[in-house]
Amino acid sequence: MNQIDRNIINHMQNDFPVCESPFAKMAAQLDMDEEVLINRIQSLLDDGTLSRFGPMYNIEKLGGQYSLVAMSVPEHDLESVIEVVNSYPEVAHNYERDHSFNVWFVIAAETVTELKDILKKIEKRTGYATYDMPKLEEFYIGLKFDA
Amino acid sequence: MPDNNKPVLDETDRRIVEATQAGLPVTARPYHVIAEQLELDPELVMQRIRQLLESGIIRRIGVVPNHYKLGYRANGMTVWDVPDDKIIELGNKIGSLNFVSHCYHRPRHLPDWPYNLFAMVHAHTKEKTNQYIDVIKDILGDSNRQHTVLYSTRILKKTGMRIGNTQ
User: Fold this and answer.
1) Is the domain of B95 the same as that of B145?
2) Which range of residues forms the domain containing residue B90?
3) Which of A147, B123, B129, B143 could lock onto A9 through a cystine, CB 3.0 to 4.6 A?
């Protein structure tokens, strides 16, 4: 990654403008050409350096519910369980971790009932228990990474 | 657990949320493209998005880096078993550490899962993460009854939060 890409990543995690030509405005701040900026962002998305671009919604404020869910799955069933879990569009993130609880996913749904219903379906389809760990209290959320 | 109070979102807001939750088009006039898709006035779309930002429904608009690709390879989810009656005090202390990206109180599932305080620690190396864990250990002191760290070994899925796309 070159310095230009680092600058883009460091300056574009917040405050993307809401106006007719936001890339032109952003490009001016970064002292680069609008078209170059657009192309760089597209290629950083294409090569996976960026996982997404756009608004980050606080789904709870939309009245939605979300939760962190853990599963403990033996190696021989891991890939098939992952496939089932990932097949639900409500599953936003899913990480494998080095613990007996090895599958950790974040699930978002409109209501608690809908969320619990999806977990029941996952349990039924995979045969493994889900451990629902919704947050009871949030102490901090301020993720920003330096490139 | 009861549902949160829902803010007043009308049909237009909802359509905008659904059209943008997977991301914005990477093109010179992204909001105009969304407006065209939804057959709405671009000014209205931008006004609604500004309102969503003001009310905190949109946390922020921008790029989301894949932190693995930025060299943050030692992403430890540290989990701690602390007394419930001290968790707010302790959670606030741990959450304010600059190497902690997220900090939450979550329910235990006894006997399998005794931990109730979660703190995500991001670093380039496990050595660095272990140093950070020692800092947390010192702060918690006797309140830390047991703890462990879970490292992510693979991203299995990573998308934005979705609503309303299953009907």
Assistant:
1) yes
2) 76-151
3) A147
Query: Which residues in chain A are closer than 8 Å to B52, comparing Cβ atoms?
Result: 55
* CB contact (8 A) between residue A56 and residue B162: no
Complex ipTM: 0.71
Tokens of A3: 């310095």
Convert the pLDDT of each residue in B90-106 to its tens digit: 999 999 888 898 899 99
CA pseudo-torsion sign A8, B153, B93, B53? positive
- Which residue of B64, B79, B113, B149 to mutate against A (max A Cβ within 10 Å)? B64
Q: Which residues of A48-62 are buried (b: 16+ CB within 10 A; e: fewer)?
A: ebbbbbbbbbbbbbb
A23 in Cβ contact with A40 (< 8 Å): no
Q: How many domains does chain B have?
A: 2
- Give yes or no: residues B46 and B104 share one domain: no
CATH number reported for the structural domain that contains residue B98 in this entry: 3.30.70.3460
Contact A62 B17 (CB under 8 A): yes
From the number of C-beta atoms within 10 Å of its C-beta (0-12, 13-18, 19+), residue B149 rates as buried
- Same-domain pairing of B89 and B47: no
| pLDDT, position B167 | 29
Cα distance between residue B12 and residue B90, in whole Å: 42
Mean pLDDT in consecutive groups of 10 residues from the start of chain A, 147 residues: 89 92 96 96 95 87 87 98 96 94 94 95 98 91 62
Looking at the structure, tell me whether residues B88 and B128 fall in a common domain.
yes
Choose, out of A36, A88, A118, A139, the residue to mutate when testing the contact with B (most B CBs < 10 Å): A139
